Amino acid sequence: MAQGRRVERVAALIRREVSELLVSGIKDERVSLGMVSVTNVEVAGDLQHCKIFVSVYGSADAQQQALAGLRSASSYVKGELSRRLNMRRTPEVVFQLDRGLEKGTSVLGLLNQLEQQRQERGEIPEGTGLDGDGAP
Question: What is the model's pTM?
């Protein structure tokens, strides 16, 4: 179980350091086109590979440009992680676009649209707490 805690701890450290690098370290103009944030870091059990999932706020073109900029800066990121984390071997860094927030937003939009249509038709079932009497 100690191995799992170490992997989680390393992932948390990598997430923090890469977030700091996004703010002040990576100078690539493509990365600054959209608002980039680290959403998740997955580190392999042997600590040799890590996937960094990023979310980019902006158009699809800005997302692809930012991802290309991050991928070109991966060797710089690996070097900075090596310097900052003092590990024997620094994991290989791979950036991937996280579409979870985008999908979640679209699902919430669809649910809100469905609720609005049902309210317009008066099809809200009893017992949902949405019938206006305030009782759940």
Answer: 0.73
